Amino acid sequence: MENAVSIINSKEKNSLSPQEIIFSLNTSSSGAYFTTDVGQHQMWAAQFLNVLPRHWLSSAGLGTMGYGLPAAIGAQVAHPDSTVVCISGDASFQMNLQELATISQYKLPIKIIIINNKWQGMVRQWQQAFYGQRYSHSNMECGSPNFQVLASAFGIDSRMLDNRDSIDDVLKICFDTQGPFLIDCQVTEDENCYPMVAPGKSNSQMIGVHKQTRSLNMNLVSSEDKLTNNIG
Ligand SMILES: Cc1ncc(C[n+]2csc(CCOP(=O)(O)OP(=O)(O)O)c2C)c(N)n1
Ligand SMILES: [Mg+2]
Q1: What is the CATH number of the domain that holds 74?
Q2: Mutation probe of ligand 1 site: the residue of 96, 120, 189 with most atoms within 8 A of C-beta
Q3: Which one of 25, 89, 186, 229 counts the least CB within 10 Å of its CB?
Q4: What would the pLDDT profile of 15-66 be if each residue is shown by its tens digit?
């Protein structure tokens, strides 16, 4: 499994892996400006997207959830003829969702991809790995809005993506649509992001570093094996 990346969760056949959706954006929106929020989706976007120079807008280290949508608005206003894609998380998106009104008002054709794992995934991963699976305030299932209904309330078209077979079709509809578009991607809830540095450890002790490369091989790797066996 050397030089392999964890793209597909092998446990459930037609389940949707967040990495695979993000990887698919390379084909459907090649050359776009990409913005992200903060969390696992941000890391996977950094790992799996082929981004042109000066086309990457992400708040990076000490980053701020809620950055993605207003950053996409700025990019779209600056580059009205370019494709702008906001990759967000189900929690991050709720920090600045009122900006859907701005998008609607100015008819900005921004494409919003919500990687909806029903968790503050990055927080969940840390609680799983370093806090004895004591999950505290990281589950988003109860109380999260229906993102399609939300988009519709602002007059924005949307689709739900909940299986692998539909990825290409839903992305095509999204990028063929003239105006703004939101996709609620119902991905597997328990996918983890590597490499990662444990608290108190140095970068030379990253977990999962040898397994995670920018190779595009679509191999089946269980990330739970990596976590429980602490494979580095
Ligand atoms: C304003 C703000 N509050 C808290 C954090 C700490 N934080 C980093 S990632 C994260 C959870 C993000 O969840 P989600 O947007 O669903 O992304 P996922 O990790 O699930 O992809 C939190 C709370 C932050 N970066 N910014
Ligand atoms: Mg999430």
Answers
A1: 3.40.50.970
A2: 120
A3: 229
A4: 899 999 999 999 999 999 999 999 999 999 999 999 999 999 999 888 999 9
C-alpha of residue 56 to centroid of ligand 2, in Å: 20
pLDDT bin (cut points 50, 70, 90) of residue 186 is very high
Token pair, residue 184, equals 């609620």
Q: Is the pTM of this model over 0.85?
A: yes
The pLDDT of residue 1: 31
How many distinct structural domains can be found in the chain? 2
Task: Give the pLDDT score at 204.
Answer: 87
Q: Which residue has the tokens 């063929």?
A: 176
Instruction: Give residues whose Cβ lies within 5 Å of ion ligand 2.
Output: 89-90, 117, 121
Range of the domain at 180: 2-186
Q: Which ligand is nearest to the CA of 63?
A: 1
- The two tokens of residue 82 are 């370019």
Q: Is the pLDDT of residue 231 over 70?
A: no
Shared-domain flag, residues 114 and 220: no
167 and 206 assigned to the same domain: no
Task: Mark residue 24 as left, alpha or beta (left: phi above 0; alpha: psi -120 to 50; beta: remaining).
Answer: alpha
Distance, CA 123 to ligand 1 centroid (Å)? 7
One-character DSSP codes across 4-35: ----B-TTSTTPPPHHHHHHHHHHHTTT-EEE
